[in-house]
Structure formats: structure tokens, C-alpha cells
Amino acid sequence: MADLTRLTAAQTAEAIASGETSAVDVAQAHLDRIDAIDEKVHAFLHVDTEGALAAARAVDAKRAKGEELGPLAGVPLALKDIFTTEGVPTTVGSKILDGWIPPYDATLTRRLKEAGVVILGKTNMDEFAMGSSTENSAFGPTGNPWDLTRIPGGSGGGSSAALASFQAPLAIGTDTGGSIRQPAAVTGTVGVKPTYGAVSRYGMVAFSSSLDQGGPCARTVLDAALLHEAIAGHDPLDSTSVDAPVPAVVEAARNGDVRGLRVGVVKEFGGEGYQDGVMTRFHESVELLRELGAEIVEVSCPSFTYALAAYYLIAPSECSSNLARFDAMRYGLRVGDDGTHSAEEVTALTREAGFGAEVKRRIMLGTYALSSGYYDAYYGSAQKVRTLITRDFERAFGDVDVLVSPTTPTTAFPIGERADDPMAMYLADLCTIPSNLAGNAAMSLPCGLAPEDGLPVGLQIIAPALADDRLYRVGAAVESAFIARWGHPLLEEAPTL
Amino acid sequence: MPGITREEVAHLGRLSRLELKDEELDHFAGQLDEIIGAVARVSEVAGEDVPPTSHPLPLTNVMRPDVVRPSLTPRQALSGAPAQEQQRFKVPQILGED
């Protein structure tokens, strides 16, 4: 059998179900790959060898007994270290939770286990998912498999790097302002931010609760759809969980087609700050959609130019409140408890020692924006901009079926280049943030390499809330047309490490 | 809009329960000043008549039946505690000596 780490998730599940290989062999091949190359990539914060092999053995035993296997049974997955895993460390990339072993599984973790998915370990991320490069991890940066001196995106850079370096065929991310889509774009992988509320947030460490959304990461559109179906659905433990049927995403991914579809190109995404090679590949993608039978329409969403500003008030405001729970009393780090400090002083000493610079910046920014005297001008105005952005989307989707844009203004930048320049870092999420503010669904998939640097470029597709299936129908059509043109999937061109 | 001073950063640090170091005050003052200067433009665009959006879903008061459900045991709940005593979280002194 060919190298098991190069198979797609769909192929892997089929090979296990047919007995061509075993779940244990598949898990072992991936654990060996992690062992061989992750020292260079640093995608994982924790590898759960025992847990992965036990889960794989359970799948093989089920098959031996003739029981029916689910569509992802035995497929390995890299889990972002923001979801709780019972008995397995969960750090959120922060020193403040270093060594914490959660006593419960997130709903998403439980669903993956029930689907027979083999969780290999927990992946690196920007601390508390705040960042676009994974450099804000307290445990060191992750390298981009296309060029290890460059960032793999963020906050879910460990997950995207694990996929692009064939350490796992599936991964989980969370997307508050682009943390699934931007890492996918810069690593040549596929990432989907489902409609807000589609995937339970129970057991997902909160950053900005009205924006946070978990979702699937994969190397193909079909694999992302299979994972989407496994993790989505109503959860009574999350009061913001959408109580509606999961759109038929797998069926859509198996029937890629854009004929007769109206595709909107957002006029505001482009121009100054956008890399030439990114725009070249984007325009080619639009031409491809036209050739495939879509009707291309230019649309204007004028409020999008205020999205970044609104986001950097709303997300920090919610984070300053959410992260108040890290008070050094019930779990996690405690510093200064030597009998000379009060509880309040111990809280402040612990937070000072446990949080990194970006987390502190955002907590203080949120505290500022919510202060009396500033509340109306900052947080209040940002909430109004959120309304205007939602209206822009509604108007656009009255005219077109999906919107397209580049996922990110540039390809992967060098590690260190923007590390201490917050405003430059924030620009990486220019095109992804509007969908978080409005709560709709969006995907990034590879659309080629930028001519000037040979690094991956992502195409973003945006669909109305609860119409996630459109992403997969369009994404699958674009993916197969590109593969036909290139002669192979884009990741075949990545270094083998 | 006045710039963010190091005194203001110190104040924000106190409100945020962050025992900031002296060298952080200047560093954060410059950065927060730049960020706040950039995000302040949100006030230019929306008029009085635009309602605020706090959340993408139109949800209010999602309730569940008031019945006992399985939950963590005391041992599980205390498993990550920095300090514990007699099946309780042990915390540093919260009131003054006198």
C-alpha cells in the first residue's frame, strides 16, 4: 500500500473499511511521520500516542466484529489546543494553562471520538487564538511547511502546518477573525468557518463569544465536508448553538457545480496593501469560475472598510470579559501565593506572568473600549458598524449566490517580521473579518502559488448563514478544475521535509 | 483624542488585574495609542438611527428544563486547583488583617 500519510481522509476511511489497511497501521504511520519531522515544523504541542493507538484499535475491533463504521472511522486528526480533552493537556497556547488536564471533553471532542476519528494530539496556536502567525504561542512558533522560516498563519498555524506537512489528513480550527481561513490560505490547504452557531462552543476556550466558531480543516474540499458533517449540529450545552438541520455539505462537495450561479466579486477587497501575485491568482480564479459557467457580478460592500476597526474593538471587549475567569483560584497557574499577597494581588501577579504581550494588549484595549466615557464612541460605534456590515452582506446576497475574494492580502510572511507590530499583523485578517461580524459561512481553498515568491494563495468563498453547502458546491468545482489544470493537487509541490 | 500615556496604561493594567512591569508601560502606551487611533474611525460611519448588533443570532433567553443533570464530581472539579483543602478551593487571604 502507498504511503498512508499521503491519502485523503475519504480514501483512508475507505481503505480501513475495506480491510486494505488497518486503523492502527494508519495511526502508526502518522505518529512515525510526526516523530520524524515535527521537531522541524512544531505543529503539535502534545502528541497523544497511547490515546491515538487505543482509538485506532477500537475501530479495528469494531470492523472485526462486523459493525458498521462511520465515514471517518479510523482517520487521524490534529486537534487545535483550544478544545478540552479529558485526561489530555489543553493549554490554548498559554502559560496560564500550562499543565492543566481538563476533567471533561468538549462537545466537538466527544463527537470526534464517537465518529471513530483518531485524535493524534493537540496543535500549536497563538495564545488564546489571538494572532495571525502562531508566533504568539507561549511554546514557540510553528514553521510553514512550504518555507520553515515563514509563518503558517494563525491562530490555527499548528493545524494548518500539520495538514500541509502530511502529519494528519484532518484538523480542527477555530475562526474568530480568520484563524481557520488565513492559515489554510498560506499553507495551501482547505479551511471552513461554518455559520456562527453551527459547531458547539461547549469546551472550546472562549476568546470572543459572539465571533468564535470551530470548523474543519483538511487537504481537500470533500474531506472538509466529511469533517464538517461529523462536528456540526445542535448542542443543548451551548445556548448559542443553532437548532437547525446541518446543510448537506458532503452531498454538495460530491457534486461541485457552478453553472448558472451568480458569483459576486467584492470591490472593496483589493488595491493598496494587496500583493500582486495574490491578485493575479485571484483574477485567474474569477476567470475560471466564468469558464465553468458562473455569472460574475461586481458588488460593493462599502462598510467592509470599517470591519477591521470594528473587530479590534468588539473582539478585545469580549476577551477582556471572558479572560477574567483566569483568576488563579480554581485551575491553572498561581503566582505569588506566599502568604504576603492578598487574593487580588495573586490574581494580578499570575495574569502578569501567565499572559503574553498580545493577550495583555487586547485585555487592556477591551477594558479601555468598555470604560464609561468611551463606551459609546468605541464599543457602541463598533456594534453599529457590525449592523452596517450585516446589511451590506444582505444586500449583496439579494443579488448573488456567493461572494469571492482573496483570503489574505499577502502570502506567508517571514517569522518575526510583524511580531511586535500589532497593526501590521492585524491586516492579515482584512478579508476574513466581515464574515465573523455577520456570522455567515466562508471557506478558503488553494488557487495557486504567487509567481513572485512561489507561496500558496487562498481563494475565499462566502455564503449566507445556514447556506454552508454552497461553499462546498463551489469549492469542489473550483478544486477539480484547478487540479485538472495543474495536473496534481497543489500540495504535491510543497517540500517533502 | 489625547494620546495614551503610561499612567493610563498603568490604570488599565490595574482595572485588568495585570501587575505590569515598568518597561511594559512605555511599550504598551505606544502600541495602544496606535491601535486606538486606528480603530477610532468606527465613530465616523454609523448614524444615530443605526441599531447596534451584539450577536449574529437573534436569540433571547435560551432555557432548558430545570432538572438535575450529571456533572463533575468534587474530585474532578478540584483536579486543576492550585491549592485545596477539605474538598474546597483554597485561596489567598481576601480580607485585611483587622
CA distance, first residue to last residue of chain A:
21 Å
Query: Beta fraction of the residues of chain B?
Result: under 5%
Q: If you average the pLDDT of chain A, what whole number results?
A: 97
- Bin the helical content of chain B: 25-40%
* 3D shape of chain B: flat
State the major sheet of chain B.
2 strands, antiparallel
Query: What average pLDDT do the residues of chain B reach?
Result: 91
* Main beta sheet of chain A: 11 strands, mixed
Computed CA radius of gyration of chain A, to the nearest angstrom = 21 Å
The CATH first-level class of chain A comes to Alpha Beta
Give the SSE string of chain A.
Answer: HHEHEHEHEHEEHHEHEHHHHEHHEEH
The CATH homologous superfamily of chain A is termed Amidase signature (AS) domain
**What is the 3D shape of chain A?**
globular
Strand order of the largest sheet of chain A: 1-3-2-4-6-5-10-11-9-7-8
Count of individual domains of chain A: 1
What structural class is derived from the secondary structure elements of chain A? alpha/beta
Helix and strand element order of chain B:
HHHHEE
Enzyme class (chain B): ligase
Pfam family, one (chain B): GatC
EC number (chain B): 6.3.5.-
InterPro entries (chain B): Asp/Glu-ADT_sf_sub_c, GatC
What does this structure look like?
- The complex is a heterodimer of chains A (497) and B (98).
- Chain A is of the alpha/beta class and 497 residues long.
- Chain A has a single domain (4-303, 387-493), classed as Amidase signature (AS) domain (Amidase signature (AS) enzymes, Alpha-Beta Complex).
- Chain A is 39% helix and 12% strand.
- Chain A contains 16 helices and eleven strands.
- Chain A has an eleven-stranded mixed sheet, with helices on both faces.
- In chain A, strand 7 (262-266), helix 9 (276-291) and strand 8 form a beta-alpha-beta unit.
- In chain A, helix 10 (307-322) packs across helix 12 (357-369).
- The two termini of chain A are 21 Å apart.
- The mean pLDDT of chain A is 97.
- Chain B has helices spanning 6-15, 22-39, 42-45, 74-77; strands at residues 84-85, 88-89.
- In chain B, strands 1-2 form a two-stranded antiparallel ribbon.
- Chain B contains four helices and two strands, in the order ααααββ.
- The model of chain B has no long low-confidence stretch (mean pLDDT 91).
- Chain B starts with 5 loop residues before the first helix and ends in a 9-residue tail after the last strand.
- Chain B has a domain at 6-45.
- In chain B, strand 1 and strand 2 (88-89) form a beta hairpin.
- With 98 residues, chain B is mainly α.
- The interface between A and B is large, with 68 and 50 residues.
- Chain B: Heterotrimer of A, B and C subunits.
- Chain B: InterPro entries: Asp/Glu-ADT_sf_sub_c (IPR036113), GatC (IPR003837).
- Chain B: Residues 76-98 are annotated as: Disordered.
